[in-house]
């Protein structure tokens, strides 16, 4: 008996495997068939020679599956080049418009500490409103991207179910988010300690999320090669089994887990509220505060999820291509942000190579006062820092950054990962002192790696 | 005669196709139409035994639970 393995296009679930196995088993000479949907492969054991590919495909006629030799190019339907370009163009147009209108204005005029008052009586509703506003800002860029990609993944499997079922992953995601915020908010209040993992760790989380988004985005555009899908993070089987519902659906807990993990995305709003939860005093109060925030972000997320699941036909196809392109762009952007948080930013074109020493020594924006190099800058919208977002200093000499302006919302904290220092931007003048021990680039940014600027030490 | 089966575990269009194709192979089943959203199948069959055979075949897939309504 011989085993033959073929690649299969078009499988997406266990029922597909069973259909293929049943059909192929009927062929003369075939003893056993084992189809594997995640791998996109079918293994056929047969007596004597294997039936030819034409015979195998004829047996599957009328189904949406196509067998081919392993390694042979796939005939699966790919979108046309123009459609992909169009989708990306639409995303950039949308982003440009949003920026014009000010939706993505990162310097969002919401300051949790201000609206709550210093240690004030911030109850459920004020924080809920902050959540509503945060959801319209850059916070949605990560959470929304994750939500879209996990909903897409789920809907391909269960696409023909009714509306409520298709919304399941969206509800799971939001529920996971609210519960995890409540739980960790409570823990923060009970321990009296902020759960703020190192920038490297949070950066790593962002990079992981970005990778997931990139793969899913390409998948939504039907551009992902199968090897890429194989490395896509999956729920461990033992865990999935434990949480699988009675109907035997696969991985309904994946959106839940993703939603829960958004707590650790170091968004400025979340961080500000985490600090606020410290003052709450009890587990219940701290939990309530962060749950209120997560609930406030829920309407936007639910609306996004609804749009992604309820559009069908041509409009749905267009929306999915748009969403796919959006998820890819957000993925790339988050990848850059995550790497910046980890202290390894990709070289941006705007960060030109360090100027020559003679020139640099005369950086007009750096004053030397009592042996300390003083950089005084102001927070702005565009550019993010005035007078400049690049400075040149001497290595080995302390640098005192004086930052004017309260960093609201997403920009609550300024951090220099490489120097392991950060400062909350909550006063009209915030000071950060560090010494660049070695020559090189020191990137500063908000804690999510957005708004990067560069200090070059020479 | 006509009967209705309640099927749990249906989750996609492939499930519908799978069960309909299983039914087509069971002798004595003249037609079977699966309603995915409702989780049921309308079956016309010649004998009560044919319906039992279909239920056994579906059970053999080890994916679904069926119940004669």
Characterise the protein shown here.
- The complex is a heterodimer of chains A (458) and B (69).
- Chain A has 458 residues and is of the alpha+beta class.
- Chain A contains 16 helices and 14 strands.
- Chain A has three domains: 2-69, 2-Layer Sandwich (Alpha-Beta Plaits); 81-342, no CATH class; 357-457, Immunoglobulin-like (Sandwich).
- In chain A, helix 6 (139-158) crosses helix 15 (313-342), helix 13 (268-278) packs antiparallel against helix 14 (283-310) and helix 14 crosses helix 15 (313-342).
- The longest helix of chain A has 30 residues, at 313-342.
- Chain B has helices at 13-24, 48-60; strands at 2-8, 29-35, 40-45, 65-68.
- The A-B interface holds A 12-16, 18-19, 22-23, 63, 157-162, 246-249 and B 8-18, 21-22, 36-37, 61, 63.
Lay out the secondary structure:
The complex is a heterodimer of chains A (458) and B (69).
Chain A: E1 2-9, H1 14-25, E2 30-36, E3 41-46, H2 53-59, E4 66-69, H3 81-101, H4 112-116, H5 124-134, H6 139-158, H7 163-166, H8 168-191, H9 199-220, H10 226-230, H11 237-243, H12 253-261, H13 268-278, H14 283-310, H15 313-342, H16 357-360, E5 366-369, E6 372-379, E7 385-386, E8 390-393, E9 399-404, E10 413-416, E11 421-424, E12 429-434, E13 440-446, E14 453-457
Parallel strand pairs in A: 6-9, 8-14
Antiparallel strand pairs in A: 1-3, 1-4, 2-3, 5-6, 6-7, 9-12, 10-11, 10-13, 13-14
Helix pairs in contact in A: 3-15, 5-14, 6-8, 6-9, 6-12, 6-14, 6-15, 8-12, 8-14, 9-15, 13-14, 14-15
Chain B: E1 2-8, H1 13-24, E2 29-35, E3 40-45, H2 48-60, E4 65-68
Antiparallel strand pairs in B: 1-3, 1-4, 2-3
């Amino acid at each position: 008996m011989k085993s033959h393995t073929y690649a299969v296009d078009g499988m997406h679930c266990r029922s597909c495997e069973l259909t293929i196995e049943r059909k192929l088993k009927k062929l003369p000479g075939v003893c056993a068939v084992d189809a594997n949907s995640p791998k996109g492969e079918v293994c056929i054991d047969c007596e004597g020679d294997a039936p030819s590919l034409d015979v195998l495909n004829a047996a599957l006629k009328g189904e949406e599956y196509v067998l081919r030799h392993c390694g042979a190019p796939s005939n699966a339907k790919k979108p046309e080049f123009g459609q992909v370009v169009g989708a990306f163009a639409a995303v950039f147009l949308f982003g440009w418009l949003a920026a014009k209108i000010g939706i993505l204005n990162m310097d969002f005029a919401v300051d949790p500490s201000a609206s709550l008052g210093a240690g004030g009586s911030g109850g459920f509703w004020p924080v809920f409103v902050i959540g509503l506003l945060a959801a319209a800002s850059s916070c949605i860029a990560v959470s929304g991207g994750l939500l879209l990609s996990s909903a897409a993944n789920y809907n391909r499997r269960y696409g023909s179910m009714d509306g409520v079922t298709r919304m399941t992953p969206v509800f799971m995601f939001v529920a996971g988010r609210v519960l995890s915020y409540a739980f960790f908010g409570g823990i923060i209040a009970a321990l009296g300690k902020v759960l703020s993992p190192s920038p490297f760790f949070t950066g790593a989380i962002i990079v992981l999320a970005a990778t997931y988004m990139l793969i899913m985005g390409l998948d939504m555009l039907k551009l992902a090669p199968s090897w890429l899908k194989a490395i896509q993070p999956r729920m461990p089987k033992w865990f999935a089994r434990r949480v699988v519902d009675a109907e035997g659906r696969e991985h309904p807990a994946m959106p839940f887990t993703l939603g829960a993990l958004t707590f650790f995305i170091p968004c400025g709003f979340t961080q500000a509220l985490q600090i606020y939860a410290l003052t709450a005093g009890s587990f219940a109060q701290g939990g309530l505060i962060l749950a209120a925030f997560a609930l406030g972000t829920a309407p936007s997320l639910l609306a996004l999820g609804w749009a992604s699941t309820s559009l069908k036909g041509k409009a749905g196809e267009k929306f999915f291509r748009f969403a796919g392109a959006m998820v890819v762009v957000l993925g790339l952007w988050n990848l850059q942000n995550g790497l910046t948080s980890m202290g390894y930013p990709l070289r941006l074109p705007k960060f030109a190579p360090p100027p020559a020493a003679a020139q640099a020594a005369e950086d007009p924006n750096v004053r030397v006062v009592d042996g300390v190099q003083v950089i005084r800058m102001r927070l702005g919208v565009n550019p993010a820092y005035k007078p400049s977002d690049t400075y040149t200093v001497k290595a080995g000499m302390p640098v005192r950054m004086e930052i004017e302006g309260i960093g609201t919302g997403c920009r609550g904290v300024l951090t220099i990962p490489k120097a392991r220092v950060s400062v909350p931007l909550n006063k009209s003048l915030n000071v950060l002192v560090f010494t660049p021990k070695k020559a090189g680039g020191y990137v500063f940014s908000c804690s999510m790696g957005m708004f990067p600027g560069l200090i070059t030490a020479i | 005669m006509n009967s209705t089966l309640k099927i749990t575990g249906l989750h996609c269009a492939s499930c519908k196709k799978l069960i309909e194709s299983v039914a087509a192979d069971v002798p004595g089943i003249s037609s079977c139409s699966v309603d995915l959203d409702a989780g049921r199948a309308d079956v016309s069959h010649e004998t009560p035994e044919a319906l039992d055979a279909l239920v056994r075949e579906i059970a053999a897939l080890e994916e679904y639970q069926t119940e004669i309504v």
